[in-house]
Write a structure and sequence with these properties.
heterodimer, A: ten-stranded mixed sheet, B: 323 residues, alpha/beta, Glutaconate Coenzyme A-transferase
Chain lengths: 279, 323
């Protein structure tokens, strides 16, 4: 069943990338919806049946009953089904503060070269002038105390900015040592940023570094969709496309109504190459 | 303790001694029946100018029917605890109940944006877990608690938190101000007439809200006997002495779910979200709040028996809930 798919969209591709990073040897705190939750659910279905994750309502290691009703990714009975423990938000936060959470997975509106996360406002904060969003939610805690943080966002110039308009959740702030000076635990911080087009890590100076690229785009295309020039790893990893098996699970069990995946461009295999369907 | 950096926003005054005295003088230490209607509870216990916290949200075992009653009674100048929530804050702001908001996560939408630009609503920035920690400090009778998150964020600058030197390790650490709301509303699965209550499933801060708040209104899916509570004391989430009113509210979380009892109504959820982000919020309020005078009338005339039967039928999971 692990046949590379011939037809998929950008959103499905990035969910599969993140899902493949997920490993049942570790404990995850997964953002409440969107791509992070879809990736965790996909990993649990496809290759990590014993995956343990927390969500901010204090669930520990559920075996969710899929699919979920719209927005019902937390608290609802199907989302928390057959967990190892049911608890509350402060308990989840305590577990993460203690160092049990190896990886946090989050989506973000905007990310900068130090991996800072903005989910509050695009534009000017003061006076309510900018376009306002819901706030950090649980992400601030996830980004502060998980050992490693994985971000998911779109490859768009307005999303990769030199400095986020508002730091809702901490990346490396303004460089080495800044997290510790701000009271965050040492040894924690951003680890990867995934977009449908690329994968980034961080260099020792805490700055974003392009490390992998999807087969349907070029490095120049990726760089054209960033407001700053990132470092580039000497050897770029090729990000493998979704498999038919992953897509089947994603489409029939996880995002049946297309609430997460029904946006973004489609990609197809044409003459042995992956290309955007609209080109 | 040396202060290294301070958020510059207003926050609800921290007064643990005042709270202790309030508990001594005003909390119901004796077991007395507190059953009342939505209308009575809100009239008696929610006041203009209150700091109000609610647990969970409009869609997930939240006190939706009490929130609608607060809007219906046109409470004013409420300072609202906006954590782990979607539409309730926008409903409360747009209906004119709220002029200050502490934000962890809310469905922001155009309505709150407009209120902020028109200076009808002031917002303060936190995160969900910082707000639950503030309630935990309030629930422990303490003035503050430390956290190893929130430092370095822009939210910190717009909050009442401080960065201090930890007197033990000498490292920088965030401290958050305790929160003791004037009033909290919590949806519980079962309660007796005195307010001994059970919450089943996962949650956010139901216990902290009850312990930290001067006045507490529970809305209960089921009213049970005190004998039933005593049969399994380990399942008691909230003790009676924290509670000031118990409102029987079957389907009180509609259009949201009460796990183990009924599923959410996807159409109702989409209608509320749509109204908040793109639609006519006034029309939503007219239909779901102002067109009726009580929760019972709402269930009968707006929601309807067949919808209620449907959401019960759709909730197939019982494991871990009813006992």
């Amino acid at each position: 069943m692990s046949t590379p798919a011939a037809n998929f969209n950008e959103r499905e591709h990035v969910i599969c990338q993140v899902a493949r990073m997920i490993d049942e040897r570790y404990i995850y705190w997964v953002g409440a919806g969107g791509e992070p939750m879809s990736s965790a659910l996909l990993a649990k279905q496809v290759h990590a049946p014993n995956l343990q994750y927390l969500t901010e309502d204090g669930v520990v290691g559920p075996e969710p009953l899929l699919p979920f009703d719209p927005l019902m990714t937390l608290v609802a009975s199907r989302a928390v089904y057959r967990a190892l423990q049911w608890s509350t938000m402060n308990y989840a936060s305590d577990v993460a503060h203690l160092g049990y959470v190896d990886y946090g997975i989050l989506a973000t509106l905007q990310v900068d070269r130090y991996g800072n996360v903005n989910s509050t406002v695009v534009g000017k904060y003061e006076g309510g002038e900018g376009r306002r969003f819901g706030g950090p939610g649980g992400a601030d805690t996830i980004a502060a105390v998980s050992w490693r943080t994985i971000l998911v966002t779109d490859q768009q110039k307005r999303k990769f900015v030199d400095r986020v308009d508002f730091i809702s959740s901490p990346g490396f702030l303004d460089g080495p040592g800044a997290r510790e000076r701000a009271g965050l635990p040492p040894g924690t911080g951003p680890w990867r940023v995934y977009t449908p087009w690329a994968m980034f890590g961080y260099d020792t100076d805490c700055q974003l570094m392009l490390q992998g690229i999807s087969p349907f785009v070029t490095v120049d295309q990726v760089l054209a969709e960033m407001s700053f020039k990132p470092k580039i790893a000497p050897k770029l990893e090729r990000l493998e496309v979704p498999t038919e098996e992953e897509l089947l699970v994603l489409r029939t069990k996880i995002d049946v109504a297309g609430q997460v995946t029904d946006r973004g461009r489609w990609i197809e295999l044409r003459d042995g190459k992956y290309v955007f369907s609209d080109t | 303790m040396r202060i290294l950096q301070e958020g510059r926003s207003e926050y609800l005054k921290v007064d643990p001694d005042g709270y202790r005295a309030f508990v001594r003088d005003h909390k119901p230490h004796q077991m007395v029946s507190k059953l009342m209607t939505h209308k009575e509870a809100v009239e008696k216990l929610v006041r203009d100018g209150d700091y109000l916290a609610y647990d969970c949200n409009y869609f997930m075992r939240g006190p939706a029917s009490l929130l609608r009653e607060i809007i219906r009674q046109k409470k004013r100048r409420i300072w609202l605890c906006g954590k782990f929530t979607y539409v309730a804050c926008a409903l409360m702001v747009e209906s004119g109940c709220v002029d200050r908001l502490d934000i962890g996560f809310i469905g922001f939408g155009p309505w709150i944006s407009r209120a902020v630009r028109e200076k009808k609503c002031t917002i303060y920035e936190y995160s969900n877990a910082i707000m639950t920690l503030r309630l935990k400090a309030g629930a422990m009778g303490l003035p503050f608690l430390p956290a190893r998150s929130f430092g370095g964020t822009d939210g910190f600058n717009h909050s009442g938190c401080k960065l201090v030197e930890d007197p033990y390790t000498k490292q920088p650490i965030i401290v958050v101000p305790a929160l003791n709301p004037d009033v909290s509303i919590v949806h519980v699965n079962q309660a007796d007439e005195y307010g001994n209550a059970r919450v089943f499933g996962t949650g956010i801060t139901h216990q902290e809200c009850a312990l930290a708040s001067k006045r507490v209104i529970l809305q209960a899916e089921e009213i049970v006997s005190t004998d039933e509570i005593r049969r399994d004391p380990g399942r008691t989430s909230i003790p009676h002495f924290t509670v000031d009113a118990v409102v029987h509210a079957p389907y009180g979380a509609y259009p949201g779910t009460v796990p183990g009892y009924y599923a959410s109504d996807p159409a109702g959820v989409v209608e509320a979200m749509g109204a908040m982000f793109a639609g006519d919020f006034r029309a939503y309020l007219d239909k779901h709040v102002y067109s009726v005078s009580s929760h019972d009338e709402y269930l009968e005339k707006v929601v309807g028996a067949s919808k209620l039967a449907e959401i019960c039928r759709r909730e197939t999971i019982r494991e871990g809930y009813r006992i």
